[in-house]
Design a protein that fits this description.
323 residues; 19% strand; two-stranded antiparallel sheet; 2 domains; D-Maltodextrin-Binding Protein, domain 2; alpha/beta
């Protein structure tokens, strides 16, 4: 029920207790970080609401009247209870803010998130991050269920119930070993050749696979052929490609070092834009707070510096970035 109007302002009662302890309105005002006129006005307002004189003022200071002493004694219980309530709420917030559950797709978790988490740790060392990795569908499910406060996905669409913001961009790259016929195709392959090839692929639900399927369908009206081998690890996919099993399509983040070393070869795809957006997701209509908001700010602020150089894969020379 609503508090009675005469006792709803606990701050005024707390000020009265300080006057009783310190012996003057001026000293109480300094303790409460307000001016003496403001403190005097607050006490007079309390006296007016209660209908009794609470202070006896003199040149030597202020003393509580008999009625004032009684009111102060009764008020002490309420003020102490309010302080206990504040301490309890603070402890809940500290417990909540000390652990941050995060979910991230494999590529983001391995190649981007470590830098973001290092920056978060430098600004909030008391925060402990609990990281769950999976494909983009699993990340979205974790955020929707409340198992993670925020997530990072690679898929082209944002599931219902989530809101998103861009944190980075990269390019999907077709990779083969040097002895594969595509490695000698300087002009690149067609979307039809890519769609009908048997690839080594991520599992259904992965953002990489979904984005490739989406790009082929939207831009070329093609359906991706079933994979010759389906793996849930990008490391395993690269190993299969290196063994000559089949080509694969992976993030440029994942294959940059192997391409630089000459172990894998990027294959351009004519007239197919494979540039994509990497996103942060969180529950719709539920604003991020505390460390979750701090991490979101860090990831968003570093978005430009995290944009991966595009080697021209997925577009003809001179074609724009898309997206």
């Amino acid at each position: 029920m609503p508090l009675p109007s005469r006792v709803a302002d606990l701050a005024a009662f707390d000020l009265l207790l300080s006057v009783a302890q310190l012996g003057s309105v001026g000293a109480a005002a300094r303790t409460h970080h307000i001016s003496q006129p403001s403190a005097s006005a607050r006490i007079r307002g309390l006296e007016s609401r209660l209908g009794v004189a609470l202070l006896q003022r003199s040149a030597r200071g202020s003393q509580l009247t008999r009625e004032g002493a009684l009111v102060a004694e009764w008020a002490r219980t309420a003020v102490d209870a309010a302080a206990a309530l504040e301490a309890g709420i603070t402890s809940l917030r500290v417990a909540r803010d000390s652990l941050l559950p995060v979910a991230a797709s494999l590529t983001i978790a391995e190649y981007l998130l470590p830098r973001w988490l290092a920056t978060l740790h430098s600004t909030a060392p008391a925060v402990s991050v609990s990281l769950t990795t999976g494909n983009s569908d699993e990340v979205a499910a974790a955020v929707l269920s409340g198992a993670a406060q925020l997530g990072f996905i690679e898929s082209p669409e944002v599931p219902r119930g989530l809101q998103s913001r861009t944190v980075a961009r990269d390019t999907l790259t077709v990779i083969v070993v040097g002895r594969h016929p595509w490695a000698r195709r300087r002009s690149g392959i067609t979307p039809m050749e890519l769609a009908t090839a048997s690839l080594v692929s991520r599992e259904e639900g992965s953002g990489t696979r979904r984005y490739l399927e989406h790009a082929l369908s939207r831009q070329a009206g093609l359906t991706l052929a079933p994979p010759v081998l389906q793996l849930s690890s990008t490391t395993a996919i690269k190993a299969a490609v290196l063994e000559g099993v089949a080509p694969a399509v992976l993030s440029s983040l994942v294959v940059a070092s192997e391409i630089a070393a000459g172990a894998l070869h990027p294959v351009p795809v004519i007239d197919l834009d494979l540039n994509r957006t990497l996103r942060l997701v969180c529950p719709q209509g539920r604003p991020l707070t505390g460390p979750a908001q701090d991490l979101a700010t860090i990831a968003t602020r570093l978005a430009d510096s995290e944009t991966v150089p595009r080697p021209g894969v997925g577009a003809r020379p001179g074609q724009g970035d898309g997206q």
